[in-house]
Amino acid sequence: MTGAAQLQPLSFFQRLANALPDAITAGVFLYAWIAPLDWRKTLVAELMLVMVVEFILIHSAPFLGSIVLARDEALKKRLRIFAGFTVFYSLFIGGFALGFKSWWPVFAFTWLIAAKLVSMVTDMRHTQRQKQRMRGYWGVSALFYLLAVFATLFLAVPELGITRHGTAYGIPGSGEWVSHPHTVIAAGFLYFGLLAATKLVEKPDWWLNFRQNTVKTV
């Protein structure tokens, strides 16, 4: 423990701001699960791309957090590094955009990056606490993602409104998510819903415990 300020909880409005982007995303997944063709005919395919992009961003979260929270580095240097990060990951996103012949992956990338940045910048006064929070959220994001994917693959998940093969919703290729597209939408709803709930009720000592447990298991 490094001081009382480190354990000071985030205010309700900070936690709400952190949780809101993920709650909105979970809501879109739920909407698509119930009425997949009402808003956009390709919404299911586009939300599958959101899950793929999020998988990439989970791996990049520690690096992104280190850029934002490197207060000892000059702003100009941090902006250059962030620009390089954006260009590097844009190559992956551009490939998805070409494959699906849609700008949706670019939109998804921008939205998901913005959601992570909101969580990083809501408490910039306490840099050490933020670093602990980012480590904690990297861990729980990876855990929630795996939990959501495997739970929807191996448990009986209701189809609700998604009753057709993935090609009917604009998903190319083959695989479990193409044959049973309701599973990826259910996984997205579960994943982003868990993230939103965690951010809304988080306690500062969670991340201290996470750090201690991590150190013990290494």
Overall mean confidence score, pLDDT: 78
Strand portion: under 5%
Q: Regions with pLDDT < 50 over 5+ consecutive residues?
A: 1-6, 212-218
| Element-by-element helix/strand order | HHHHHHHHH
**General form:** globular
Description:
It is globular and about 50 Å long. The chain has helices at residues 4-7, 12-34, 43-68, 75-100, 104-121, 127-154, 176-179, 181-201, 204-217. Residues 1-6 and 212-218 have low confidence and may be disordered. The protein has 9 helices and no strands. Helix content is 75%, strand content 0%. Helix 2 packs antiparallel against helix 8 and helix 6 (127-154) packs antiparallel against helix 8 (181-201).
In brief, what are we looking at here?
Helix content is 75%, strand content 0%. It is mainly α. The chain is globular.
